[in-house]
Write a structure and sequence with these properties.
Elements lengths: L3 E9 L8 E8 L7 H11 L4 E5 L8 E8 L4 E2 L3 H15 L5 E6 L2 E8 L4 E5 L5 E2 L6 H7 L13 E7 L2 E7 L31 E9 L7 E10 L2 E3 L3 H15 L5 E8 L7 E9 L6 E19 L1
Helix pairs in contact: 2-4
Length: 309
């Protein structure tokens, strides 16, 4: 006998349909569970960068808790940004519409989520154990992965290999010196950094590359960047985990006692799926550690239906 599950798709980090980053959302009632292999098959069928499985809310606590599993077409991952924002928006819009806060239980930890119903912005306090790895591949490794960046005398101003949580790793490549180089980034199967570059004890579940260009200062205290992210042989229109890794790194570089650094990141324009990702990073009194990392964005529901097994 076949089993059916309700699904939706949502475009995350945008207020417009057919922009932002697509997310598959499967509602998973306790009475009709799925095996790990079934979840992986469904994620492969959707073939989006991530598909989430949202379990029944536990409303015996306040705020309510909801377990959410995140899958790529290849494996389960502990955390990703746009699935987290999409999950919060989905839960507080469709499953718990009378609630203003929810705790989303991910493999990476518990995430407190809220929804501003006036603006449509879902916000999450992101679990993090930010780490900068001792080894960072050099510019030669970047050019070997991205031949279009060679020549013209261009070179990254800064390179760093960082992780926001264990298993989510990104190499950061600063192209601000020659912003036109950002347009020459292409999807490749070869990445500048690999699992061999990570410090011991940091799993290589995912290793991607974020290329960025600093935008003009508007004088409002928000640091703005254009960025592109290539990961698992794909370009992503919005990558929250990479954005959190990136802005955590920047905030610590800027420092400041009890400083609050705000960022706005534009991604996906070259793909025709513009995304706007906002983060806010708070540092401790020594300006050396992160005490709080918030990420927010809008979502737009696109499709709904049933999937059968």
């Amino acid at each position: 006998m076949s089993r059916s599950y309700a699904f939706r798709t949502s475009d995350v980090f945008t207020s417009h349909a057919y922009a932002g980053n697509q997310l598959g959302i499967i509602t998973l009632p306790q009475s009709n569970p799925l095996s790990q292999s079934d979840k992986q098959k469904i994620a492969q069928e959707f073939n989006l960068s991530e598909t989430i499985f949202v379990h029944d809310p536990d409303t015996s606590t306040s705020p309510a808790h909801v377990v959410v599993d995140i899958f790529t077409p290849y494996s389960e991952i502990p955390f990703a940004g746009h699935p987290t924002i999409g999950a919060i928006h989905h839960i507080l819009t469709h499953l718990l519409p009378s609630h203003d806060k929810v705790i989303v239980d991910l493999k990476a930890g518990a995430v407190v989520g809220t929804l501003d119903r006036d603006t449509g912005f879902a916000a999450a306090e992101i679990p993090q154990e930010f780490h900068r790895h001792a080894r960072t591949p050099g510019w030669d490794a970047v050019v070997a992965s991205q031949p279009g960046l060679s020549g013209d005398g261009g070179k990254a101003e800064q390179l760093a290999l960082v992780s926001i949580v264990r298993g989510m790793n990104f190499m950061l490549v600063d192209l601000s010196e020659k912003p036109e180089m950002l347009t020459r980034v292409v999807v490749t199967k070869s990445d500048p950094a690999t699992g061999d570059d990570l410090d011991e004890g940091w799993p290589q579940t995912l290793v991607g590359t974020l290329f960025y260009v600093r935008k003009d200062d508007r004088g409002d205290g928000v640091h703005r960047f254009d960025q592109r992210v290539v990961v698992i042989g794909l370009e992503d229109p919005a990558t929250g985990s990479a954005s959190c890794s990136f802005t955590a790194y920047l905030a610590l570089e800027m420092g400041g006692a009890n400083a609050v650094h705000r960022f706005e990141l534009i991604q996906g324009e070259q793909m025709g799926r513009k995304s706007v990702i906002a983060t806010e990073v708070t540092l401790d009194e020594g300006g050396k550690k992160i005490t709080k990392l918030m990420m927010s964005g809008q979502c737009k529901n696109v499709m709904k239906g049933e999937i059968e097994l």
